[in-house]
Specification:
- The protein contains one helix and eleven strands; from the N terminus they run αβββββββββββ.
- A hairpin with a 5-residue loop joins strand 7 and strand 8.
Length: about 130
């Protein structure tokens, strides 16, 4: 779909927001080094995980006609040194919600993460 109505976009964004806040756990985002899988159905290599950040519950801060904004994550210690090349967002049930390419879909102040350093995300706006 190249063009959708405002009502259709709102319905998609609200459905995504409901998906993100489903489950009994907090939604998370994991940053990885290395090659991003071809699609979210492909299991990520856990050896490439650099840091896992948790969102508060609920994780959705705002839903507009063009995006769903997530609340800021916690600040977490990096478990492995490396260059963050992509990230995967999981809902509260542990289901994959989205894969993001660092530098294209998501920006970090510094993509080179050092073991023992910390990372948090202040804003994520997801667009359908």
């Amino acid at each position: 779909m190249s063009k959708t109505s405002v009502n259709a976009r709102l319905a998609m964004i609200q459905a995504f927001a409901n998906f993100m806040d489903s489950g009994s756990q907090s939604a998370t985002v994991i940053f990885y080094e290395g090659t991003q899988p071809t699609n979210p159905a492909v299991t990520a290599d856990s050896n490439n995980a650099l840091v896992t950040l948790k969102f508060p519950e609920p994780c959705i801060k705002e839903v507009t006609s063009t995006y769903a904004e997530l609340y800021p994550t916690d600040t977490t210690t990096v478990i492995k040194s490396g260059t963050a090349t992509w990230a995967r967002i999981f809902n509260g049930s542990g289901q994959v919600a989205a894969d993001l390419t660092v530098g294209t879909d998501i920006s970090l102040a510094n993509t080179n993460l050092a073991l023992g350093g910390t990372l948090s995300i202040t804003s994520i706006k997801l667009r359908p």
